[in-house]
Amino acid sequence: MASTLLKSFSTTAQRNVGNQLSSAMRSFATIHVEHGRGVWKTYGDVNNYTPGKFQIKTFNKISPIGLARLSEDRYDIRTEEQDAHNAHAILLRSHKLKEEEVAHTVRAIARCGAGTNNIPVARMTELGIPVFNTPGANANAVKELVICGLFLGSRKVIDGINHMKSLGEQGLARERVEKDKAMFGGREINGKTLAVIGLGNIGAATAHDAAQLGMKVKGYDPGLSVTAALKLPSSVQLSDSITSAVADADYISINIPYIKGANGTHHIINDEIIKHFKQGAVLLNFARGELVDSDALKKHLDTKDGRYISDFPDDVVWNHENAVILPHLGASTEEAEDAAASMAADTIKMFLEEGSIRHSVNFPTTSLPERPKGTVRFTVVNKNVPGCLALITESFANAGMNIVQQINQSRGDIAYNMLDIDVSSNGDVHSFKDVQEQITQIDHVLSTRILFGTPGQGYAKKIDGEYFV
Ligand SMILES: NC(=O)C1=CN([C@@H]2O[C@H](COP(=O)(O)OP(=O)(O)OC[C@H]3O[C@@H](n4cnc5c(N)ncnc54)[C@H](O)[C@@H]3O)[C@@H](O)[C@H]2O)C=CC1
Ligand SMILES: O=C(O)C(=O)COP(=O)(O)O
What we know:
- The chain is of the alpha/beta class.
- It folds into three domains: about 130 residues, Rossmann fold; about 190 residues, Rossmann fold (3-Layer(aba) Sandwich); about 100 residues, Alpha-Beta Plaits.
- About 30% of the residues lie in helices and about 20% in strands.
- The protein is elongated, with a radius of gyration of 27 Å.
- The site of 1,4-dihydronicotinamide adenine dinucleotide has 32 residues, from helix 5 and helix 8.
């Protein structure tokens, strides 16, 4: 393949490593790479591209405390309303992200929260884009609302409040209060049984606090890790199926991710499960609306005096007298918003500036020790197929470049590589761009980056043989 890059090894190659690297970084600040089908070339300017800063596209209200971790000198933060067609990363909460909102320049997406069902994760994996979330950052906020839900499901607090408003409007509150309260009797949670479906960050915290409040707690989670199990109170009784967990429960809290498709969790709480619910059982859904089959649930509310406390819209039971529907408030506390946005910002920063990966839902956790002086860091995303890694390392060897340290990790269909290359071994910035070009062309390689420390440079992406920055 023809390259229009001019090679200029001569002078730079002789300089000491420090000069060489800073010279390379200066050259990089002016190099922009345009990619077209089968062609790789450089040119001087790219419309609306801001050299030197990473552009971050945000959706939803992201906590300013979190965003402040992305310093103004290195990050250009754009809101939903602002143009950001050269965005390097996306930060969002519950916005339902469409593929067309992910510009070809986007290298990463971070969800300030737990659930990533609003992001087309499978497609992002195909495109080689890591998706991150913030495990545990908003769990306490949700747990507190689940505990509140236990009380809302036991005591007719909301009906009582509405009644008092209505009496107040008629000037009858004092006269009627003692007589009317008999309409709003309830029960206590102490001594009752709670089944927690999903014992992750929220479920485990809920199990813990419910036990403290005197409840008998049962739990079901086929993916329970040993670490998570050790954090659970010893009194929690583990069940081997949802059915056995819910069978004798007065309260059921569902705290699992929503996953579409085969082996997913769509309508996991369906007629089959709900028919095992006890008379008067209260279902708490602070996870996702789609986990529950509302038609089946309605029968439980209609015929078995069941209750439903949910954080999500529902077309069937939204106005049922036994349902309390909240406007997705679980994570809407200052503390949770700050914690989730801060964790997401730190994760994105780490990925953009160092290439390290943590808290990803589709990429392997990957990190290298700090980049040694006199090295340039490459990262490569490729499909997890045999032989790819050998071709990548061979490209450096063919260019006479020495790999100082490297790591290759895989997860499912994707593999991720970080490689620190000795800059004294060969050439200047153009030699590195040449190697990047060769690596990007390898079959199954999806994207490559050179991290020079100059933000916003050195990215190349290949989709169906077509290159993009
Ligand atoms: N209402 C709100 O504002 C919020 C809602 N959420 C929802 O809650 C969910 C859980 O959040 P976290 O506890 O932070 O996540 P997490 O990842 O810490 O825990 C999820 C747990 O569910 C388990 N699980 C998965 N599939 C299961 C199944 N079929 N049956 C039983 N257990 C299963 C997993 O093994 C894991 O332990 C999120 O995915 C999100 O949908 C999370 C945060 C805020
Ligand atoms: O973290 C989650 O999964 C949530 O549901 C929280 O959503 P939010 O960030 O409040 O829009």
